[in-house]
Amino acid sequence: MKPRLSRNIAIAICAVIFCLGIVTYGYAQNASWPGLKIGEDKTPYVAVAVNGEISGDKIILHWDQVDHPKFSGYKVVISKSNPNPKYPDDGYLYYITERTMTSAVINNSEAYKNGDFGEKLVPGEKYYFSITVLYSDKTVPGDSLQLTYPIGTAVSSPEPAEEAIATPAETTQPTKETPATETKPAVKPVVSSSSSSKAPQVTVSTDNNRLIVKWNPIYSESFQGYKVIISKNNSRPAYPSSGYLTYITNQSTSQWVIDNSTAYHGGDFGSYLTPGQAYYVSVTALYSDGRVAGNAVHVTYPADGYDSLAEKEGVRQSLDPIAISATASGSNLILSWTASEAANFEGYKVVISKSNPNPKYPNDGYLEWITDRNRTSVTINADTYYQGDIQGNLVSGEYYYFSISIIYDGWIIVPGPAQYVMIP
After folding, report:
1. How far apart are CA 418 and CA 209, in angstroms?
2. Rounded to the nearest 5 degrees, what angle is found at the Cα of 24, between the Cα atoms of 15 and 135?
3. What pLDDT does 9 receive?
4. Annotated region Disordered: where (predicted)?
5. For residues 322 and 32, what is the distance between their CA atoms, to the nearest angstrom?
6. Is the peptide bond between 88 and the residue preceding it cis, with omega within 30 degrees of 0?
7. Which of 144, 175, 190, 230 is most buried, by the most CB atoms less than 10 A from its CB?
């Protein structure tokens, strides 16, 4: 019996070693551990801090773009009494599903939903504002900001209003249309409340079909960052009114390359520059006590420069849309489609509309964001849909248009054909 016992012990020891090897490998592959989800996406979830200022009779909020692969949207949240408001506990004003839309105007034009102060803000009252980021599997609230909702055109803000920003004279980059001798009269700047605040001195040059923006590095204890600004129509662009291309927090950084590889946020020309088109380029310096806009340079984006929109359109046309089928199952409607095999696949958006025969994301919102390419069906019943032309629950016995918008790398969106189907 002893040989057999020894053999059994040896087998048991080997089994333990094998299991420990699997556990060790799984842990190495997924440091967050739960469920040994080997290969799981470990990209950290991001909370965004909101900035804001009062402009006339409205409040303008701004925040940084979230590029997480599981991003679903932003909820603009307000509370009268909670200093740390978040969705869903404190309701929301806007639901924004386009990741590049990083600003919101608060002007009482829309009713607030499920808050602690009613549907409208009261002029002269203080409120807490924040942004909750929605991911496909969780929500992450950000830091809050307290502002007073303005009375008429009164200006009250923890940051200087746009009129209080020092804006040096515009400089014009020499072009064929604009001789080098042409200059505009200097405008006397409004001095910032802190003598440490300085305006960036901006120059722009063209190199290898790109624009090179340079400025003097600013060393100040109150320094917070630089915003690179572009505008098509505003000859004196400044942050936040003209949006921004990038946010730089390193004081020593003194140049940035504009090559259409990064989407613009909140501008007057869309997300990307058009080759051959002239723009005003500037840099706004952010300090703890305010913001100071640098001079603007009028320059043409090279005609042979990288055209992101054209490339995206070319990629979009090369990708096939996804058709869906619908089947009633009791009180449910089952939507199904064929899995995408594209290497640059990012996800499916399930889109519904009451009146649009060709619904697509983001115009018509979405019901669900699916990032697993092999999940090719979804069950529909009396779901709540607060986007597009549907405000509330889907109604049994009524017809709707259903489609799938497929999202590819670079946020290229290809909407599919719709099915007009009745909810059982």
Report:
1. 42
2. 130
3. 62
4. 156-202
5. 35
6. yes
7. 230
How do residues 125-167 score in pLDDT, each as one tens digit? 899 999 999 998 889 999 888 888 988 633 333 333 333 333 3
Cβ atoms of residues 324 and 287 within 8 Å? no
CATH architecture of 51-148: Sandwich (2.60)
**Burial of 181 per CB tally in 10 Å (0-12, 13-18, 19+):** exposed
Distance of CA 382 to the CA centre of its chain: 29
Q: Which two tokens stand for residue 364?
A: 């018509």
CA dihedral 107, 111, 113, 118 (to 10 degrees): 90
Strand order in the sheet with 58-62: 51-55, 58-62, 103-106
> End-to-end alpha-carbon separation of the chain, Å?
69
Relative to beta strand 297-300, strand 171-172 is parallel
Write down the pLDDT at residue 311: 52
Residue 57's SS3 state is coil
Domain(s) of CATH 2.60.40.10: residues in the chain: 51-148, 159-306, 319-422
Amino acid making up residue 237: P
Which DSSP string corresponds to 83-128?
SS--TTTT-BSEEE--TT--EEEESS-S--BS-SS-SSPPTT-EEE
Residues 6+ apart with CB under 8 A from 154: none
What pTM value is reported for the model? 0.36
Whose structure tokens read 């670079």?
410
- As a 3-state breakdown, the chain gives helix, strand, coil percent values, each rounded to 5, of 10, 35, 55
pLDDT confidence of residue 190: 33
Residues 381, 326 contacting (CB under 8 angstroms)? no
Query: Which pLDDT value is given to residue 417?
Result: 92
Please report the pLDDT score of residue 400 as a whole number: 92
Tell me, what's the pLDDT at 185? 33
- Nearest CA to 402 among 330, 340, 332, 335? 335
CATH of segment(s) 319-422: 2.60.40.10
> Which residues of the chain register pLDDT less than 70?
1-42, 152-197, 305-318, 386-387, 410-411
CATH superfamily of 159-306: Immunoglobulins (2.60.40.10)
